[in-house]
Amino acid sequence: MKTKSLTLRLCRTILLLTILLPLSSFALNGRMRFITTQDGRYLRLGDLAEQWQLHSENMPNDRIVLADRNYRFELGAGSRGARLNGTLLYLHYPPICAPEGKWFLHQLDMERSLKPYFDTDSLYPDPVRRIILDPGHGGADPGARGETLLEKEINLAVARRVAARLRAAGFEVVMTRDDDSEPTLAERSALVRTTNSDLFVSIHQNAATNRNAIGIETFCVTPPELSNPADSRNNRQNDCPGHRFERNSLRLATGIQSQLLRHTGATDRGVKRARFRVLRMSDCPAVLVECGFISNHEEEQKLGREDYQEQLAEGIASGILQYCRELEEL
Ligand SMILES: [Zn+2]
């Protein structure tokens, strides 16, 4: 009796394995056709659209749209600049449009640029209760200098206005500094763990030698796969707490960037990636916002105005709220 049931169980296991094994290798391949270039593997966009059940549509001027109910990605052949619901988002590699209209997207962009929107199982769904706001620089470090303004002062003024809005919306807010002190970068990101916080938003103003440069840009951490084999320092930076939340950070960055543009009407410089220490070392989703160029005369004038600081704060707070709402809807 015992032998029989063992045999039966064995048969059943073998049967299950024969059914499941081909399925799993299928899923691993994801039925994706691909080409390989010197930059690595590019996946066929049509197969990707089918797997994620997206609407895809060729547009004029070598552009293509991929969309579901909530998100619309517009990609351009040979261009890293994509549009997510209209907001500029930089891909890691330019998509390829081969003859006969066959499109290919780099595997890293499938995993790290599109997946956070179209395959939301890849996100951490943890609800947000406590938010860290990090006004950049402070104390002896003024940050960028304009004709009349210091970056550290604008950062703090905007952060305080964001804090008031978030507290009114029921969140707890921790400030890395609420005066002219100068916490180190390590102290700022360490606050995530010591205060058990759920988001980290660093607030800065930009500067450039080109005095015509204007606009808003938002950064999240560079994905760990983008290591540089020639740079061992970079590779050491690839095993960081911030990388675990990289997809959530991208969602937070696009939410904040799009709401900032909506509330200020400023120039869109896009959502970008960087290995800034506060982004790598924060043990939660983290972004760094550059609200405007203190080195441009007109933008400096605006940044010094209280009503414009209010608009910036409204944009940042609305972006955070949008991110939280989207997480709840997952
Ligand atoms: Zn700064």
CATH architecture assignment of the largest domain: 3-Layer(aba) Sandwich
Structural class by secondary-structure content? alpha/beta
Give the helix tally: 10
What is the CA-CA span between the terminal residues? 49 Å
Average residue-wise pLDDT? 90
Percent range for β-strand residues = 15-25%
Question: Which oligomeric state applies?
Answer: single chain
Q: Specify the overall morphology.
A: globular
Number of strands: 15
Name the CATH class of the largest domain. Answer: Alpha Beta
The SSE order reads HEEHEEEEEEEHEHEHEEHHEHEHH
Would you identify the regions where 5 or more consecutive residues have pLDDT less than 50?
A: 10-28
Give me the CATH fold name of the largest domain: Aminopeptidase
Description:
With 330 residues, this protein is of the alpha/beta class. It folds into two domains: 34-122, Copper Amine Oxidase, Chain A, domain 1, CATH 3.30.457.10; 130-328, Zn-dependent exopeptidases (Aminopeptidase, 3-Layer(aba) Sandwich). 41% of the residues lie in helices and 24% in strands. The protein has ten helices and 15 strands. The chain has helices at residues 2-29, 45-51, 107-118, 151-168, 185-194, 232-236, 246-264, 277-281, 297-303, 306-328, and strands spanning 34-37, 40-44, 55-59, 63-67, 72-76, 81-84, 87-90, 96-98, 102-106, 130-135, 172-175, 199-206, 216-221, 268-274, 286-293. Strands 11-10-12-15-13-14 form a six-stranded mixed β-sheet, sandwiched between helices. Strands 3-4-5-6-7 form a five-stranded antiparallel β-sheet. Strands 1-2-9-8 form a four-stranded antiparallel β-sheet. A hairpin with a 4-residue loop joins strand 4 and strand 5. Helix 7 (246-264) crosses helix 10 (306-328). The longest helix has 28 residues, at 2-29. 39% of the residues are buried. The model is unreliable at 10-28 (pLDDT under 50). The protein binds zinc ion. Zinc ion is lined by residues 136-137, 143, 151, 204.
